[in-house]
Write a structure and sequence with these properties.
about 300 residues; alpha+beta; Pseudouridine synthase; 5-stranded mixed beta sheet; about 20% helix
């Protein structure tokens, strides 16, 4: 007999405004305890020194995490000139200095080179895995870390503020973009030294700061017995996936892992994924083909 999970079978998304200095994994643990949830995960790691949107999936919402990981993200950050650090942020050790202070015109001229599909080398101090180990673990142990360049998508890169010693930006980007690397490469293109001194994520897919709660707010809701008011439905992470209304019989078939006839056959569009729903309740995420909708993630809601 399978061991029963501890906690409540609560399912949905909590959009945490992650505080400074708290890591993503401890943040998930704090939220999971507040909801007494059986299962929890997050969509997109935030560095401890970054603040902002950390979508946390509880229960059945964990089955949708992979879809949100691919979502567009928005960041705001400040690049302070004068020093390079080994971590590319203010917690690192200074490894080089420069008196160069770029002008507004010089910065704006370079930004266009960092928009579109660009090549980027992730930071040495990052969670990327190399031969089965985290890059930051290798870096801290003194090992030379050889990280390969990868392509990432930067949709917009906008200068929002500039003074003599620093510049602030807003970036809209795709999956896998490292803002610290973007800041490093921009400073290098300006023949300057610089590192990130502020980093805040303001949106992930359909979620933004208007949907978010701080840990203090969640704790207050918990004390009042209203913490479920912070919970968003499982399907809110799937706003880019077409929704298909199904019958009760079709819902039963999908829940038993059986495919149903493709209701979109013959139509102009053939989406890779559809969200099958019965009476406004998510039933399954299905792959589509000419003949069938095949269940890939079935929800127990």
């Amino acid at each position: 007999m399978a061991r029963k999970r501890k906690g409540n079978p609560v399912s949905g998304w909590v959009i945490l405004d992650k505080p400074y200095s708290l890591g993503s994994t401890p943040s998930v643990g704090r939220v999971r305890r507040l909801f007494s949830a059986q299962k929890a995960g997050h969509a997109g790691t935030l560095d401890p020194l970054a603040t902002g949107i950390l979508p946390i999936a509880l229960g059945e919402a964990t089955k949708t995490v992979s879809f949100l990981m691919d979502a567009q993200k928005t960041y705001e950050f400040t690049l302070t000139f004068g020093e390079n650090t080994d971590t590319l942020d203010k917690e690192g050790k200074v490894i080089s200095i420069s008196e160069v202070r770029p002008t507004t015109e010089a910065i704006k001229c370079q930004l266009k080179n960092f928009v579109g599909m660009i090549n980027q080398v992730p930071p040495r101090y990052s969670a990327i895995k190399i031969n089965g180990k985290r890059s930051y673990e290798l870096a801290r142990s003194g090992e030379v870390v050889d990280i390969k360049s990868r392509q990432v998508l930067v949709e917009t890169f906008t200068l929002t503020k500039h003074d003599e010693n620093s510049a602030s930006f807003r970036v809209i980007c795709g999956k896998g973009t490292y803002i610290r690397s973007l800041a490093r490469d921009l400073a290098l293109s300006l023949n300057a030294c610089g590192h990130v001194t502020m980093l805040r994520r303001t949106s992930v897919g359909p979620f933004n700061l208007n949907h978010s709660f701080s840990l203090d707010e969640l704790e207050n809701l918990c004390h009042r017995g209203d913490v479920l008011k912070a919970l968003r439905p499982v399907e809110t992470a799937l706003d880019d996936i077409p929704v298909l209304a199904i019958t009760e019989f079709e819902a039963t078939e999908l829940k038993h892992g059986r495919a149903i006839v493709n209701k979109l056959a013959g139509s102009a569009e053939h989406p890779d994924w559809i969200l099958a729903m019965l009476d406004n309740k998510a039933v399954a995420i299905c792959s589509t083909s000419e003949g069938y909708h095949k269940p890939k993630r079935v929800f127990n809601l």
